Amino acid sequence: MKSYFQKDGIEAGCDEAGRGCLAGPVYAAAVILPKKFKHKLLDDSKKLTHAQRLELRTVIEKKAISYSIARLTHKEIDRYNILNASLKAMYKAVKSLDTRPTRLLIDGNRFIDNANIPHHCIIKGDSIYASIAAASILAKTYRDEYMEKLHKKFPHYAWDRNKGYPTKAHRTAIHENGACIYHRKSFRLYPDQEKSPLLKKK
Predict the structure, then answer these.
(1) 2: how many CB neighbours lie within 10 A of its CB?
(2) What DSSP state is assigned to residue 142?
(3) Is 145 contained in some domain?
(4) Pairing of strands 11-17, 66-72
């Protein structure tokens, strides 16, 4: 895991969580770490256990020079499309940092061009750079917590387990119960969606 892209300047790593989900918001995080920050567990959030992510979140929030969490709702995802919503969420997180970075490290292959901060898009950057890995952990843990809260309102979708991702059980629950107000209506929620109008639950 590399500590920085370039030694000079202030680098913020950025990543998102929830892009492939059928329900709920997309979350993003931006993190500025000290150049010498290291942790033996730090890695792409998808490679870590739930307990490891929570342990690292505590360390990151304590040690980071600055960090910020942002989200765009399911309605905004339907309005902008998921790609643009993900980029907007990352941009929103960057703009909310207490310390202004001089360079952004973005997980993925694109970012908003008018951010007015030099940026580098890095495919699988959350497995390469510490600041992006830290951002992936914060975005993932905050989004998971939010979906666990929504689960209490809509337990039949099992969001406490699938977090809104398109598991077989989640798709079956949508087919049997219809979609609720937190589902992304612009997504294909189940195979015969055209034949079965979505039910809106309050």
Answers:
(1) 12
(2) H
(3) yes
(4) unpaired
Length of the chain: 202
In a domain, 127, yes or no: yes
**pTM across the whole model:** 0.93
How many domains does the chain divide into?
1
**pLDDT tens-place string over residues 14-33:** 999 999 999 999 999 999 99
Q: Give the Å distances, CA to CA, from 36 to 4, 65, 151, 159, 176.
A: 9, 12, 39, 37, 52
Residue-wise pLDDT for 136-175, tens only, equals 999 999 999 999 999 999 999 999 999 999 999 999 999 9
Range of the structural domain that residue 57 is part of = 11-151
Give the separation between CA 35 and CA 4, rounded to whole angstroms.
7
CA-angle at 56, arms to 95 and 73, nearest 5°: 40
